[in-house]
Amino acid sequence: MVRAPCCQKIGLNRGPWAAEEDQILVNHIGRFGHGNWRALPKQAGLLRCGKSCRLRWMNYLRPDIKRGNFTREEEETIIRLHGELGNRWSAIAKNLPGRTDNEIKNVWHTNLKRRVMDPNVPLKRPKKNKQKRESSRALDRSDSGFSSCVIDSSTMTMETSLGDRIGSKLEDEFNVSESDLSMDFTTLETRWNSDFSSHAASDLLTVSTEISTCDYVCGNEGEIERFWSDTLAMESTVETPISPSYYFNLFNSDNDIDFWRAILMDTERDWQEVSQNH
DNA sequence: AAGAGCCCCAACCGCATCATC
DNA sequence: AGATGATGCGGTTGGGGCTCT
C-alpha cells in the first residue's frame, strides 16, 4: 500500500523558512498550541506542510532550545550516551536539556565521530560565529546579546544608564518615582496593586518593548527589535492581567529571547481571554 | 582577489510507531 | 483486530559560508 503524502505538496513552500513564516508559526503556537500539526499550517495561514512546521518548531523555534556551541561536558555526554544507546538521537537528546536530536546528530557526524574513532585526530576547524543563512537568523537567539543587561534584580535597584533610560520612561508615563524603582519587591507589589495596575496593556507593552529592544539589552541591533515591534504592534484598549512580578522580572539580567518570547505568548493568551470576556 | 573544495547545519524524506476509530 | 491517520525518528541532502591555495 502506498501511503498518502502527509500533506498536499502542490503550492506549498519548501526550503529555508522566512522570518515572516517563523513569526506566523510562533504567534500561532503561542495562541493555540500545536495540538494538530497537520491542520496547523492551514489554520495559521502558512503555505507549509505540517511536518515542516513541526520540524521548524521542534528544532529551531521552540522556546527552550539552547543555542551556541556544545560545551565539553555536553560533548562528553553525547559520546558516552552514543556508546550506550547508539544512534538513538532522541534518547540522547533527552539527557541534554535544550539540545535537539537533529543538532546532536549533526555535531556527532561533523565532529565527535572522528574523535571517538581516533582520539589523536585533531578537532576540525574551530567553530566561529559564522554567518548563518539569512532565513535561519530570523529569530536567532544565540547572538541576542541579552547578557549585557546589568540590572540588579534582587533589589530592583537600577544601576546603569539602562536604568536611567527605562527609569525616565517609567517616570514620564507611569508616574513612577526613582524611589519606587529602588523598592523591595513586596513594597513594589503593594504599590502596583494600588497605582500601576490601571494602565492599559498597550501602555505596558510599549515599555516592555522599549526595554526588550533597547540597545543596552539587545546587542544585535535590528532583528529582535523588528521581531518585537512587528509582533507587539497590535492595539489594545483593555486592561491586562500582566502582573508586577512579570513586569518587573523584565529587569532580570538572565533574560534572553526565550524569556521575551514567553512573555509574548502569555500576553497574547491573556489578550485573547480578556477580549473574549468583553 | 578569486575560485575550488570543505564544512556545517537546516530541512527533507521515508519508515516506524503510536493513536484513534 | 485491522485500517487509517498523525507524529516521531534517523538517515541523508543541498546550499551557503568559510578556509585554503
From TrEMBL:
Residues 9-61, 62-112 form the Myb-like domain. GO terms for cellular component: nucleus. Residues 118-145 are annotated as: Disordered. SMART domains: SANT. It is found in: Nucleus. Residues 132-143 have a biased composition (Basic and acidic residues). Coiled coil: none annotated. PROSITE patterns: HTH_MYB, MYB_LIKE. Residues 9-61, 62-116 form the HTH myb-type domain. GO terms for molecular function: DNA binding. Keywords: DNA-binding, Nucleus, Repeat, Transcription, Transcription regulation. The keyword Repeat applies. It holds the Pfam family Myb_DNA-binding. Its main location: nucleus. This is MYB protein.
